[in-house]
Amino acid sequence: QVQLVESGGGLVQAGGSLRLSCAASKSIFSSNAMGWYRQAPGKRRELVAWVSSGVSTNYADSVKDRFTISRDNAKNTVYLQMNNLKPADTAVYYCNKVVPMVLITYWGQGTQVTVSA
Questions:
Q1: Would you state the pLDDT for residue 55?
Q2: 70, 59 Cβ separation under 8 angstroms
């Protein structure tokens, strides 16, 4: 069964921190690079951080040096530590495998992150 369950979002003031978690089914998690995507109101969904099946990580310029992605292969879980949050980070955050989005047929419910000025 395909499953993605994101959690950890909330309301935080600018400069604050949050840690997101995503529990994935093995069919999605295993052998795939995993990423965190976000979608702000009125904007397209974008990939902001991703981690290979090993430990290699990459970040969008907008979050570099503030966000840290990691994965626990034993738990089929991927995390996103977000520090120094900005109002521009306000969005619904989703995790999924890293492939062209047109090829992704399943999304979890996401977790809302709201950063107040």
A1: 81
A2: no
